[in-house]
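Open question from group meeting: does this chain pack into something compact, or does most of it stay loose? Before anyone orders reagents, we agreed to write out a predicted structure and look at it together. Recording both the input and the output here so the notebook holds the full record.
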Amino acid sequence: MPGFGDPAARLLVLGLAPAAHGANRTGRVFTGDGSGDFLMRAMHGSGFANIPTSQRSDDGLALSDAFIAAAVRCAPPDNKPTPDEIAACHAHLVDELAALPNVRAIVCLGKIAFDAAWRLLASRGVVVRPRPLFEHGAVYRAGGFAIIASYHPSRQNTNTGKLTPPMLASVFRTAKRAVAKGQTKT
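Structure tokens returned:
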């Protein structure tokens, strides 16, 4: 499933994969389920989404200065993509970023998305050694991009308090500052 959002976006929100009961129904990643609602509330609070929840493809959701994509383009069994599935979908992610020339920051929702972002930068010749460690709220700069790590807004993480609304809101405030700085790509 392709990503969606503002083609002039300065922010790329990168997730794991479409959810079987949300995105597969709506046709848009991070919509139609609890994880998507959790994410949209944070994006709405930072001005990246015009509404705080999205349950249907015709509900009027519009992203502003943001584009949402996934490391894997189909819903994997048990929400655990194999390395082969991740590798097979990488070219699509490369193409999506190439079509978004204004992206300055990438919010990575979970470790799989975080790793995909570094592979994405490597495909552009930006290799960071050693690869930064995933840590919620961490911000790294490489190749003219701010890479912002966040726990994934899965029900497992949100129901246990591993990721709270204030934690995700903070990530998107950081992203808002990163794109507002006018950082240019090198």
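Observations to bring back to the group:
Strands lie at 4-5, 11-15, 66-70, 105-109, 139-142, 145-150.
The first strand starts at residue 4 and ends at 5.
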